[in-house]
Amino acid sequence: MTVTGPTLDRSVDLARLLERGLGQKPDAVAIASMDEALSWRALDAQSQNLANNYLDLGLRRGDRIVSLLPNRLQVLVHYLACLRTGFVTVPLNYRYLARDIDYAIGLSKPRLMVAHAERAHDISQCAGLADLDLGGLSVDGELPGFGAFEPLTERAAAAGAPERPGPDDPAVVFFTSGSTGRPKGVTHTQRSLGHIVASLSATYRITEKDTILPVASLSHMLAQIMSYAALAAGGNAVVAKDIGVGAVMPLMRHHQPTVIAMMPYALTEMVYASEDPDPAFANLRMCDCGGDKVATDLQKKFQQVSGVELAEGYGLTEAGIVTHNPPGGPIVHGSVGPAMAGNEFSIRDANGKDLGVGEEGVLWIRSPSVMSGYFGQPAETVEAIKDGWLNTGDLLRFDDQGYFWFCGRQKQIIIHDGSNIAPQEVENVLLENDAIEAAGVVGVPDTLHGQNIRAYVVLKPGVKELPAADILKMARDRIGYKAPEEIVAIKKLPENAAGKIDRVTLSKMAAEDVSPSRTA
Questions:
Q1: pLDDT 10s per residue in the chain (520 long)?
Q2: SS3 state of residue 72
């Protein structure tokens, strides 16, 4: 059976993102950080100047601009200039090293790079710069051979008003986190990205009264779509220049946001640095926490300091956020919520058969939010999208109330004695042990069982010895055959560029060290 979210009666025209704020309060603050702010009028002028200067450089609608930038107000100026003109942004994770940058350039084939001056060393090692026929622009300082970015936002250009992009024109190429292999360039059009923003706005109930703070990199979809939703409604977007707790808490206290979003690890740092209750959360009405599992203790602690329940959702770069616990309730903890507006879902088995209530299978999505494809990778696109349906590769189920439950990623599934085991389920149980700070679970090849389950764990500060026997007993009592056979204590779990557990690296660690020092 299929499950359909509420009807979405509008979309967001990204090329006209500033019109509401400009019309209602042109001199009020539109975007801000801790030490900078731009009014609607200034944001409109700077993005228009930049768009026209890009045209003067020789860029044309559909050309791609790759960026390597930390969170700054200039990043949103750059994105808005491209959205209103039809240039395609290719935002790179700021953690990327030279080899990652070269890979992204080789795949997306941009004509121009915009980069921060502090990345001079890595940029100097990039062979792909030679392929940028328009060179580069440097932000906050000088890069050898690059022009200056800031003057292009301040001075008027000779170019006239640019032609508005069409709804099916590409808008952005996001690179996936690469949790199952080399990153792919997820391409969204003006229409699909606008639909994602509209669906988020409807579900989060965004209005002109909202101040939205995404504690995430603006190179990622989440921070972008939340910022666009704030601007489209005439609200305020706050930019966190650093997502560490030392920067975020002063930002919270200064701007008093109504909506925030962050990953569990960042939220954990924040709540344990907060008062109980903390006045920084006085105006908060919603916290979106996703991208990885949310521990029960974190949910309880956050509600103590903020007075607000955590709202989990599920999303992917290829379609945006598609399920979410409604901020008005009821919030079902552990669930990723019901279908968001404008999305249609089907849970299917390995043979493509529709499954029913309570049955675990692969989630397929049909929606205007679905990407147009993987840039430069037609075979991968055909594999992912069939008859208008996107194969997410993720395992979910839904209950009789229409709430979805995330069960794991199909490509990370461990097959033990013929049974599929989601590593997230095992990790959730391990995290209930008071000695464990973090956990990552992978399959290890075994001639008898197919794969055995190995857990890599990080012990909490002050815990000197791994209580393996207690952990294994608890896991076996809770999840039976899914419990790990091996437990390995390590100092830190590897993370991918998106800050999530890097199970690809854990699997490589397991393959390279078949007999680690461990408790089994």
A1: 899 999 998 899 999 999 999 999 999 999 999 999 999 999 999 999 999 999 999 999 999 999 999 999 999 999 999 999 999 999 998 888 888 899 999 999 999 999 999 999 999 999 999 999 999 999 999 999 999 999 999 998 776 667 889 999 999 999 986 544 578 999 999 999 999 999 999 999 999 999 999 999 999 999 999 999 999 999 999 999 998 889 999 999 999 999 999 888 788 889 988 888 899 999 999 999 876 667 788 888 999 999 999 999 999 999 999 999 998 889 998 899 999 999 999 999 989 999 999 999 999 999 999 999 999 999 999 999 999 999 999 999 999 999 999 987 767 778 776 666 778 889 989 999 999 999 999 998 876 677 889 999 999 999 988 999 999 999 988 888 789 999 999 999 998 766 778 888 898 888 887 544 444 4
A2: coil
Q: What separation in angstroms does the CA of 338 have from each of 144, 193, 353, 389? A: 50, 21, 21, 19
Which residues, in sequence order, are CB contacts of 462 under 8 Å at separation 6+?
none
- Predicted TM-score (pTM) above 0.85: no
| Block residue for tokens 């792919």 | 184
Give one word for 214, left, alpha or beta, with left for phi > 0 and alpha for psi -120 to 50: beta
Counting beta carbons within 10 angstroms of the beta carbon of residue 45, is it exposed (0 to 12), middle (13 to 18) or buried (19 or more)? middle
The residue to which tokens 């039976």 are assigned: 480
Which residue type occupies 11? S
Where in 98-150 does DSSP place strands (E)?
Answer: 112-116, 136-139, 147-148
Domains identified in the chain and CATH numbers: 37-165 (3.40.50.980), 413-512 (3.30.300.30)
